[in-house]
Amino acid sequence: MINAIWLFLIASGVVLAVFKGTMEEVSAAVLGSVSSSVELFLGLVGVMALWMGLMRIAEKSGLVGTISRGIRPVMHALFPAVPPNHPAMGAMVMNVTANMLGLGNAATPLGINAMKELQKLNPRPSVATNAMCTFLVINTSSVQLIPATVIGLRLAADSGNPTEIVGTALIATTVSTLAGIISVKALQRLY
Amino acid sequence: MFGLIQGLSSIAVPFIILFIVVHGYLNGVKVYEVFVEGAAEGIKTALKVLPYLVAMLLAIGIFRSSGAMEIFTAALRYPASVLGIPQEVIPLVLMRPLSGSGALGVVSEILKTYGPDSFAGRVASTMMGSTETIFYTIAVYFGAVGIKNTRHVLPAALIADLAGILASVAVCRIVFGYH
User: Fold this and answer.
1) A97 part of contact set with chain B, CB < 8 Å
2) Does this complex have an ipTM over 0.90?
3) Which of A104, A180, A89, A109 is nearest to B161 (CA)?
4) Is the domain of A110 the same as that of A173?
C-alpha cells in the first residue's frame, strides 16, 4: 500500500504539473525536498544520539523497568506477543510518555528504539509484526495531552482564549487512538 | 495558562536529563560510557532513516508544489459536507497525514483567514492537536529497522485519522455551539 501511495503522490503531482503549468515549482520542490531531508536528518542525528544515550542509562539503572511496571497490564493487553519483561515494553512506554508530554524531539528517537527492540522478536525481519503495527498506530493517532504548538499559533493569531481547544483536542485524540487500536486489532487477521 | 505550559515544557527536558543521569549514577551505572555507547547507536540509526526521509519528502514535495492539493480539496467538498466537515478545514484534512510542517502552515493560514475563535479556527486547532503525521512516522519507524511489508498499518492509521477528524468536528459542535 505504501508503494501505491508513494507512486500516486509522485505521478499525480507530475501529471497535474503538466496541465496546470506548475512544472517549474515541481522541479524546485524536488531539489528542495532532497536538501530539506538532509537538514531534517542533521537535526535528527543530534537528538537521536542524545535520547538513545539517555535511554541506555535509564535501561541499565532500572528506571525504565520501574516506570513500565505500573502500566504493565495495559501494555500486556495491547501487545500480547511481547514478553512482559522484554526491553521492547519499556522502550514503548518511554515513547508514549514522551508523546503525551509533547516532547516530540525525544519521542521519535525513543520510538525508533522501541521498533528496534520489537524487531528482535520478529521471525520475519522484513515483515511488520502485529505488535509493531499496534505501536505505530498508537503513535500516528497522537496521544499528546497538551498541544503546545497549536496553542502558540492561536496566541500568535490573537485568540480570545488560546487554550480553549485543550479539552476538545484531548477528547478527539482519545477517540482517534481508540479507533486506531480497534481497527489495527481487527485488521491484523486480514493481512 | 499558556505561560505555565510553556514554562513546564522548557524546564522538563533539563530535569529529565538530570534525573536519568543521577538515578543511573546512584545505581552504579557508568553513566558517561553508557551514554556514549547509546549515542553511537543513535547516530547509526539516524543514518538508516535518511533514505526513507528523502523518499517521503520527495513525493510529498512534488505533490504539494504541483497544485494537486487544490484539486483534491475541490473533489473532497461533497464528501466533506456529507460528513459535516467545514469546507475551510479540508486543506488541513489533506495535509495533516502528509506533512507536519505543511499542516502547521495550513493551520496558521486558517487562523489568519477565518480567525482563531471562528468555528473553522477551533476545528482546525482541535484537529491539529489530535491527529498526527502518518506517512512520515511510518516511513521513519519502519525504515529504521528495515521493514518492507507494512501490512495493515496504513489502513488502520487512516481510520484513526478519520475518526480524529470527525471527533474534532463533533466535539467542537457540542462545546462551542452549532454552526
Assistant:
1) no
2) no
3) A180
4) no
